[in-house]
C-alpha cells in the first residue's frame, strides 16, 4: 500500500507540468488559427462593425493573447474553465454533460477490444504456426488496416439500413419516455454499432500483441522446463505463457487510451453520439476557444487518470515494477 501511494504521488506531481503544457500549447495553437468566435458568429447571422466591436468586448476578445492566457490560467486555479460563447453556459457544465457518453463509448469499446482480443490472442498463441494461428493473424491484420470511419459506415449500412436490426444513430430513442431497465436496454441497442466500430480496430492490435508475446514466452526457460516436467499444455498456456504475455497488453491499454479518445471523435460524428468528440467538432465550427480548450483539458486529465490506473494495475501484476518506481 505504501509503495502504491508513493507511486500515485509521483505520477500526480508529474502530471502538473504535462497539463500546463497542454493548456498553453492548445491556447497558442488556437490563437494562431485565423478568425475567432466573433467571426464565426457574424458569418452565420451577419452584423456591422459596431456589433463586432461590442461582441469582442463582451466576450473578452479585445485583450491581447497573453493577457487572456494569464486570465484563463488564473481562473483555472479556481476550477473555472470559462464561458462557452456558442452555448452561453459555463464550459465545465457543457463538458460534464457530454462526458458520460464518451466514457460509456470508450469503456465499452475498451472492454470489448481488450477481452476479445486477449482471448483470440491466446487461441492463436497456444499453438504457434497452426492453421488457427495463421487464420487469426491474417484476419487481425486485415481488420487493423480498415479505417474506422469506413468500418462504421459499412456496419451502419448492413445492420441499420438493410437488416434494420439496430438503431441508425443517437444515444437513445427520442421522447420514448422509457425509464429504468427499459431505458438502459434502449441505450445499449444504440451503442452496439458505435462500440463495435471503435472496438474492432483495437481488438486486432491486442490480438497481435498477445500472440507475439506468447510466441516469445514459449521460448523461455521456465516454459521449456514446465513442458519437460510433463505439465499439460492447457495448464502451461493459461498459468504460465498467457499470464506473462499479458503484461505488455496492460501497458498498451494505457497508451491506446489517447488514440481511442481521438477515434471516438470520428465514431461519434458518424453515429451522432452526443459526446466530447462531437462537442469538439461543434466547438471548432463555432470557433469557441474556451470550450475547445476545456474539452482538451478534460481529455488530457482523462488520459492521465487512465494511465495512472494502468500503472497501478501493472505494479499489482508485477510487484518488481511497483518497488522500482516507488524507490526511484
UniProtKB/TrEMBL annotation:
Q: What subcellular compartments does it reside in?
A: Cell membrane
Keyword check for Protein biosynthesis: no
Query: What topology does it adopt in the membrane?
Result: Multi-pass membrane protein
Q: What is its main location?
A: membrane
- Pfam families in the cross-refs: BPD_transp_1
Q: Keyword annotations for this protein?
A: Cell membrane, Membrane, Transmembrane, Transmembrane helix, Transport
* Membrane-crossing residue ranges in chain numbering: 12-30, 103-123, 135-161, 187-207, 245-271, 291-310
Q: Does the keyword Phosphoprotein apply?
A: no
Give all residue intervals belonging to the ABC transmembrane type-1 domain: 99-314
Tell me where on the tree of life, at the top rank, the source sits.
Bacteria
Listed SUPFAM superfamilies: MetI-like
Q: Which family does it belong to?
A: Belongs to the binding-protein-dependent transport system permease family.
- From the Swiss-Prot or TrEMBL record, give the protein name: Peptide/nickel transport system permease protein
Tell me the classification of the organism that encodes this protein: Bacteria, Pseudomonadati, Pseudomonadota, Alphaproteobacteria, Hyphomicrobiales
Amino acid at each position: 500500500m505504501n509503495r502504491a501511494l508513493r507511486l500515485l504521488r509521483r505520477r500526480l506531481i508529474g502530471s502538473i507540468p504535462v497539463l500546463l503544457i497542454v493548456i498553453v500549447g492548445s491556447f497558442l495553437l488556437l490563437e494562431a488559427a485565423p478568425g475567432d468566435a466573433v467571426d464565426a458568429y457574424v458569418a452565420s447571422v451577419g452584423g456591422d462593425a459596431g456589433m463586432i466591436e461590442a461582441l469582442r468586448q463582451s466576450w473578452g476578445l479585445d485583450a491581447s493573447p497573453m493577457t487572456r492566457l494569464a486570465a484563463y490560467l488564473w481562473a483555472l486555479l479556481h476550477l473555472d474553465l470559462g464561458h462557452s460563447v456558442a452555448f452561453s453556459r459555463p464550459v465545465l457544465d457543457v463538458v460534464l454533460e457530454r462526458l458520460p457518453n464518451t466514457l460509456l463509448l470508450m469503456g465499452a469499446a475498451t472492454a470489448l477490444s481488450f477481452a476479445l482480443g486477449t482471448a483470440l490472442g491466446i487461441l492463436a498463441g497456444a499453438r504457434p504456426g497452426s492453421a488457427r494461428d495463421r487464420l487469426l493473424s491474417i484476419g487481425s491484420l486485415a481488420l487493423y488496416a480498415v479505417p474506422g470511419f469506413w468500418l462504421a459506415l459499412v456496419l451502419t449500412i448492413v445492420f441499420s439500413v438493410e437488416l434494420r436490426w439496430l438503431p441508425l444513430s443517437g444515444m437513445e430513442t427520442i421522447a420514448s419516455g422509457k425509464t429504468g431497465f427499459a431505458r438502459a436496454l434502449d441505450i445499449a441497442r444504440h451503442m452496439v454499432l458505435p462500440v463495435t466500430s471503435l472496438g474492432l480496430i483495437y481488438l486486432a492490435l491486442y490480438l497481435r500483441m498477445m500472440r507475439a508475446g506468447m510466441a516469445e514466452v514459449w521460448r523461455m526457460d521456465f516454459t521449456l522446463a514446465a513442458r519437460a516436467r510433463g505439465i499439460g499444455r492447457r495448464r502451461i498456456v493459461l498459468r504460465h505463457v498467457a499470464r506473462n504475455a499479458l503484461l505488455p497488453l496492460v501497458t498498451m491499454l494505457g497508451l491506446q487510451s489517447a488514440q481511442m479518445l481521438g477515434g471516438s471523435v470520428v465514431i461519434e460524428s458518424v453515429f451522432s453520439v452526443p459526446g466530447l468528440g462531437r462537442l469538439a467538432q461543434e466547438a471548432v465550427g463555432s470557433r469557441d476557444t474556451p470550450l475547445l480548450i476545456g474539452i482538451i483539458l478534460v481529455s488530457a486529465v482523462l488520459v492521465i487518470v487512465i494511465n495512472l490506473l494502468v500503472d497501478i494495475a501493472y505494479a499489482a501484476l508485477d510487484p518488481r515494477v511497483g518497488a522500482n518506481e516507488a524507490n526511484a
